[in-house]
Amino acid sequence: MNNILKYTKGDRAIWLVVLFLSIISTLVVYTSITSLAYRHHDGNTFYYLFRHTTFLIIGLGIMYGIHRIKYSYFSRVAQLALYISVPLLLLTLLIGSNLNNASRWLVIPVINQSFQTSDLAKLSLIMYVARILSIRQDVIKDFKKAFVPIVLPIFAVCGLIFPANFSTAAVLFTVCLVLMFIGRISLKHIGAMIGSGIVAIGLAFLLAMSVPGLLPRIDTWIARIENFSSADSKGNYQAEQSKIAVAAGGITGKGPGKSTQRNFLPHPYSDFIYAIVLEEYGLIGGVTVLMLYLILLYRAVRIVVKSPKAFGALLAVGIAFMLVFQAMINMAVAVNLFPVTGQPLPMVSMGGTSIWFTCIAIGIILSVSRGVEHESTLNRMAHAKI
């Protein structure tokens, strides 16, 4: 145990959160992939279990490697990552893999593995916003010197994600607003940005209604909102099946591997995995998962309080808020508090490169925590000498 602690630096509580989420993910994914296994691999659930655990193990290795990097380096990486992300998002819209009228994936030719370019773009944009906010603190209230260099990339990235994935674009836009507020951007500028975003979405919807085919996903978005606000059980099939899973779980749940709704829920291993958690582990399991994400956010806020440098503080809280906000939306959808969005549960839902990008994100938070601890140790040593 001491040897493990020797090589894993940073916030221990975050490491424990990741460990528990990984264990929960393995258990719940294994029980929820039955229908998928029968459709594609003659009922061989071990294939998906092995694939998922492999992605998790590699992801944890990536997280370990990232957390050993000095967090100040991510300030330099941010600009390059953003320059790469924008063309990739554009390429995805033009030639990306299409599913349900949404082009979200690009295929990596060498390993034949698809990935959502929005995962890279989210991380890149948050790092970039944290970088600009930190280096422009002296002129942070200035419109041209601080606000414009931040808002243009936000609108560019969110605008390119929007046609295929409205919920991801909205989550990222909200996270950037929170970062800008924490980074002391003028409230009137933030208000203008919110107004501009609402107007842009309204114009996009009006244009899409006038020109059929321009935004193929618009009918899906409208239908989801209408179904959520109505009591039509046929249109609310996903939400109805999820509610059955929640009700069947009760306080203590049915027990591991005893879910029945996994056979009826669409994507029980990703979008609706929280419903399976509630069915098999009950309210106790659901609250435990919720608390793990809240602990992650709380520990990130602790890092912010201790961080002597603006970039590290903004980077940690921005990434943590993105992950936790995404988790909250996924859980809200599962209990029918929010329209269906398609947001996975970070570190729990089955996925390939999405797990890796989540691990990179948490690795960056741990890198900031490690750097803050190191700086704190140096300060204590300096005071001791004095």
Describe the structure.
By secondary structure, the protein is mostly helical. The chain has one domain. It has a three-stranded antiparallel beta sheet. A hairpin with a 2-residue loop joins strand 1 and strand 2. The model has no long low-confidence stretch (mean pLDDT 86). Helices cover 72% and strands 4% of the residues. The radius of gyration is 21 Å and the shape is globular.
Can you summarize the main beta sheet? 3 strands, antiparallel
Shape: globular
Number of helices: 14
| Overall residue-averaged pLDDT value | 86
Give the topology.
Elements: H1 2-7, H2 12-32, H3 34-40, H4 45-67, H5 73-95, E1 97-99, E2 102-108, E3 113-116, H6 117-135, H7 143-161, H8 166-182, H9 187-210, H10 218-229, H11 237-249, H12 273-306, H13 310-334, H14 353-385
Antiparallel strand pairs: 1-2, 2-3
Helix pairs in contact: 2-4, 2-12, 4-14, 5-6, 5-7, 6-7, 6-8, 6-13, 7-8, 8-13, 11-12, 12-13, 13-14
Based on the model shown, name its key terms.
386 residues, 14 helices, 72% helix, 3 strands, mainly alpha
Structure, briefly:
This protein has 386 residues and is mainly alpha-helical. The chain has helices at 2-7, 12-32, 34-40, 45-67, 73-95, 117-135, 143-161, 166-182, 187-210, 218-229, 237-249, 273-306, 310-334, 353-385, and strands at 97-99, 102-108, 113-116. Strand 2 (102-108) and strand 3 form a beta hairpin.
